[in-house]
Design a protein that fits this description.
Length: about 140
């Protein structure tokens, strides 16, 4: 949404919220397709010109998220960082003579960082469907 359009919307919504007399915009433009949206009298101001425009916006938003491999890299880095922190903490405790011996194995029952890629399995199937729809 461009700056002017956004300000128009915000001013109107602010006026309504504060009970100030205001003129409801008759048309609005959506940044992406530049289509004029006719504003119907009741309800919220429309964001999209059509259902398909809303759907395209949803897809753009969805694909803007980091790629699955990027996510996996981040998750694996998190696991490595946790292990390093554990090791460092244990070394400090040993130095202070509060514990002895090597660090115990990680408690499997403790919450461990989730691997988003593994959890996103169902989402992947949906993604495949959408990719097919696009063609
Ligand atoms: Zn549109």
């Amino acid at each position: 949404m461009d700056e002017r359009e956004l300000r128009r919307r915000l001013r109107y919504q602010d006026d309504v919220a504060r009970g100030r007399p205001t003129k409801r915009p008759k048309t609005l433009r959506y940044r992406w397709c530049k289509a004029k949206i006719t504003v119907r009298p009741p309800g919220r101001l429309p964001l999209y010109c059509s259902h398909s425009c809303r759907q395209r916006a949803h897809e753009r938003k969805k694909w803007r998220q980091p790629h699955l491999l990027v996510q996996l890299n981040q998750d694996l880095a998190n696991v490595a960082i946790r292990a390093a922190v554990r090791e460092e903490a244990w070394a400090l405790l040993r130095q202070m003579r509060l514990v002895m011996g090597p660090a115990p194995p990680e408690n499997r029952r403790q919450s461990r960082p989730a691997l988003r890629l593994v959890e996103a399995d169902e989402g992947c199937a949906a993604t495949g469907d959408q990719a097919r729809d696009e063609v």
